[in-house]
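quick one before i forget lol
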Amino acid sequence: MKLYNTMTRRKEEFVPLKPGEVSMYVCGPTVYNFFHIGNARPFVVFDTLRRYFESQGNKVTFVQNFTDVDDKIIRRANEEHVPFSDVGARFIEEYYRDADALSIERATVNPRATEHIKEIVALVARLVDAGHAYATPEGDVYFAVRSYPAYGKLSGQSVESLESGARIDPGEQKRDPLDFALWKAAKPGEPAWESPWGMGRPGWHIECSAMSMAVLGETFDIHCGGQDLVFPHHENEVAQSEAATGKPFARYWLHNGFINIDNQKMSKSLNNFLLVRDISKEFDLDAVRFFLLSAQYRNPVNFSRELVEQASAALTRLKTTRERIARSPVSETETEADAAFLAAVEQYARSFNEAMDDDLNTADAIGVLFDFCRAANTFVSEPRSRSAIDAAARFFDRAAHIFGILQKTAEAEFPAEALALLEERAKARTERNFARADELREKLRTLGYAIEDAKDGAKLKKL
């Protein structure tokens, strides 16, 4: 597999530190609000990468943090007159709710900044002792950017080019405008922890370095996030981590492209941050996830209702194909057509992998899946061998699982009571007990469900 490495600005063959094992760190949310569609893209994209690695037989350690102490969290807590920890805990649960609805698999570990204060303080002290950081009389600690000659290597910016726009804000005691905070001295009414420099709390950048190294070690395989994090967040992570350890930090850096809203850049001034929670009231989030994968992850993507509706219609076509495969009549004999289709499925599988191996090109992989569906729809219109039908089902199900689509079963959508009544009605109709069947239909209506009778059987539908 080849991945585009932001650090080297080229596609590179992905070779994990340990054969058969992949270590990934993905920057997670700052938990002060519901997450928006821009946040959702990296969550979905890198969940898909993880799924693909696992489908290839790799063991993946997938780490995604929660930033649960931050200016925004403190501000919201003060506005609501609650402890800052209550805000973080509440929106962590809300994150899981929306992430589950987007079929985002739970991380192997979700470290929280407040649970790693000890490791953060130790890392800051390590940098101070090495001469890469300094404390001010007020108790702030800053990273000395010029002490790390390679600063700017991830973003491609030089220290000289950064100087012109750098400044020292009022109240800051840093020595150089480019230096950034590792530890912030306590302020009245803010949460604080003990440290060698007095009571305070961590800066944003140091949190991710400490948490990732605590779980994955000082060097790991892949660090992921949105393009907006390249500078300064990830640049600062590289500098402080490598200055402290003298070792490479992450070996591959992956960044997804921006999302535009109706051809406009997402921005606070335009007030066009669409929350996933709000989008879910209008669209099935399966369609939203499929839309987010419709473009190669490094390319920008434009979110519009029309495009999500198109993704929803495409998902319906895929679902119809899978249902046709499941209902395909079985032949006891295997024909030349079966053998030819089996060979075609193997080629579709190779083409699918080739697309995914080319820097996670989900757009081309989706194209392969639709090519397969067109062939499968024609093929299963007649009785076919069990081996050919099973091969078609396996290919489709693997692709759907990697994309994280069509994973919600009827059992997950409808309660057991309603499904039992539907089954009882089907039995009554088979026994030609139509009066009982009508009673069961009405009982389902009182529970909020209608019945749609189709050639392939009856289905429930929410009223």
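fyi The chain has 16 helices and 17 strands.
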